[in-house]
Amino acid sequence: MTDISKGNRKHMTLSDRIIIEQGLNQQMTFKSIAASIEKDTSSISKEIRRYLLWSGEDPVPYKGNDCVHYKTCTIDMLCMWDCPGYCKDCDRKGCNYYCNLFESASCGRLESAPYVCNGCPAVGSCSKTHRFYFAEKAQKRYAELLVSSRSGINISPEDLKAMNELISPLIRKGQPLSHIFSVHGNSLNCSRKTVYNYLDQGLFDVRNIDLPRRVRYKLRKQRWKENPIMYDYRRRRTFKEFEKFSSAYPEYEVVEMDTVKGTREAGKCLLTLLFRRSSFMLVFLLPSCTQKAVKDVFDFLYEQLGRRIFMKTFRIILTDNGPEFKDPWSIEKDDKGRRRTFVFYCDPYVSNQKSRIEKNHEFIRYIIPKGRSMHNLTQDDARLIMCHINSVARDSLNGQTPFDLAELLINKKVLRSLGLRKISPDDVILKPALLKK
User: Fold this and answer.
1) β-pairing, 269-275 with 280-286?
2) What is the rounded CA–CA span in Å between residue 197 and residue 155?
3) Strands 131-132 and 53-54: what pairing?
4) Going by C-beta distance under 8 Å and a sequence separation of 6 or more, which residues neighbour residue 15?
5) Which tens digit of pLDDT belongs to each residue from 31-48?
6) H-assigned helices in 221-290
7) How many CB atoms are located within 10 Å of the residue 132 CB?
8) Is-contact 179 279, C-beta < 8 A?
9) pLDDT digits (tens, 9 = 90+) for 245-274
């Protein structure tokens, strides 16, 4: 094998196959043909034997009767046609396809290289079985083989049944595949893409519609942006000021803040606080989406944790420009006027500046669909939502859960004072049924 052919591992193209066909017609050796397309000699031999065509296969015509018993055969009426004479002289299709005694008179040229009749000077007058290699036909059969070899599923019925019994109950609980693979990846012995393909083919008890997220997003429209008015609450609290402050104090944890509303009517809503480093999210039920309700949550945390732990845990708050957050002074300072945190605001219409909490809200929407009222929710329900969402393994955390990182990065008093506990991986539920138990 030459150095050039040794490194050439690509599949043959139509141009390569045309060169092979021309070489066979010119009675070139396999070695000469291989050198012209920079392939190994064995590759040429395998290519020809894999895609050659026999007599009778389109476009190779039938070339007479090549039976070894031709001269002595007296069989007639094989095809039930009222034909005069013997079947061996039939000019329709020949008796070779009907006779059980047929034995082909093989040609030595077909038993060894070149294995085909291309380039044979006697091919026109020979009545024996013919075999040819045609480049276009070989390319077509090659393309069909690429498709057929990748169709179907490469798994036994027993393994498929075991995979279905493992995955389907977890998906029905609302668990995403990322979480399932983080917990049971070693048991599945396949990639996540393979599981998606099996779901597309309907091989499981669940379907694509059962997945919490299996849709395509529409292209977002670019909103026209105007220079925001510098309201008093935003002074020295813009996103640029946040970037300067957080870069000057990288040791401080950034907590993203937002609200999740139910119906458009005024009423209960959820206040969410997400720690960037661990993706750990706190959820509090607000009786109303007001500035006072937000202040009450921070006063509660300040009282439960104490000044020192609170300031270390909630040093930097990043939120949007919602009306419930437009009183930063009540959040930043305690009742004695002492500073306890720093509040900053994202630019208007730029939600990606706090993208992590926006992304995390999807888990809440799995449990409380958009437009559903939160009138019957209690803080115990919010605590239950916290526990299940923070127990979901994330790709962004290398298969770990926010709980795993929170136990390392967040003061344990925060988790203990709020009564939070980690849920077993297989018991995680991200469906509305979670709140009906």
Assistant:
1) antiparallel
2) 13
3) antiparallel
4) none
5) 999 999 999 999 999 999
6) 239-248
7) 20
8) no
9) 999 999 999 999 999 998 776 789 999 999
What residues contact residue 281 under an 8 Å CB cut-off, 6+ apart? 272, 273, 274, 275, 357, 360, 386, 389, 390, 402
- Residue 330 CA neighbour count, 13 Å, CB half: 15
pLDDT of residue 126: 76
Helical ranges in 279-434 per DSSP H: 291-305, 307-313, 328-332, 355-367, 379-389, 402-409, 412-418
Cα–Cα distance between 359 and 350 in angstroms, integer?
14
Instruction: Identify the bridge partners of residue 274 per DSSP, sorted by sequence position.
Output: 256, 281
pLDDT, tens digit (0-9, with 9 covering 90-100), for 211-227? 876 655 555 666 555 45
Task: Please name the residues in contact with 432: beta carbons below 8 A apart, sequence gap of 6 or more.
Answer: 367, 368, 369, 372
- Does residue 93 carry a pLDDT above 60? no
Res 314: pLDDT: 95
- With b for 16 or more beta-carbon neighbours within 10 A and e for fewer, the 199-234 pattern comes to beeeebebeeeebbeeeeeeeeeeeeeeeeeeeeeb
- Give the type of residue at 405: L
The secondary structure of residue 220, as a DSSP letter, is P
- Mean per-residue pLDDT, 292-301: 96
Of the candidates 385, 358, 342, which has an alpha carbon nearest to the alpha carbon of residue 276?
A: 358
pLDDT tens digits, 343-388? 999 998 888 899 999 989 999 999 999 888 898 999 999 999 999 9
What is the residue extent of each domain of the chain?
Answer: 3-66+104-149, 157-210, 232-436
pLDDT value of residue 113: 84
The answer to whether the CB of 310 falls within 8 A of the CB of 252 is no
CATH C-level class of 232-436: alpha beta
Residue 110: enclosing H or E segment and its boundaries?
Answer: helix 108-111
Peptide bond between residue 328 and the one before it cis (omega within 30 degrees of 0): no
16 burial (CB, 10 Å; 0-12 / 13-18 / 19+) is: buried
Contact yes or no for 87/98 (Cβ under 8 A): yes
* C-beta of residue 422 within 8 angstroms of C-beta of residue 401: yes
- Helix (H) and strand (E) counts in the chain: 17, 7
pTM of the model: 0.65
Query: What spatial distance separates the first Cα and last Cα of the chain, rounded to whole Å?
Result: 70
Mean pLDDT score across all residues of the chain:
86
